[in-house]
Amino acid sequence: MPILSSKFQIVIPKEIREKHGFKEGDQIEFLSIGNMLQVSKSRPIKDYEGFLKGIDTTIERDEDDRL
User: Fold this and answer.
1) Distances in Å between the alpha carbon of 65 and those of 59, 60, 61?
2) Domain extents for the chain?
3) pLDDT tens sequence across 15-56
4) CATH number, domain 1-49
5) Model pTM?
């Protein structure tokens, strides 16, 4: 089990690093959910390019929603 050091550093165990592809120099994000902390690798915005390709953008809107 990882231990928090006096400098507030945590070592991610090798099997977790390998499973999730963490490498030295990766930027990571923390998300606090209740009493849980989620850690994930940051991804450049360019990685998201095209991920909505083909999505149906036709939606029914009420007249009062229009500008």
Assistant:
1) 12, 10, 6
2) 1-49
3) 999 999 999 999 999 999 999 999 998 888 888 888 888 888
4) 2.10.260
5) 0.55
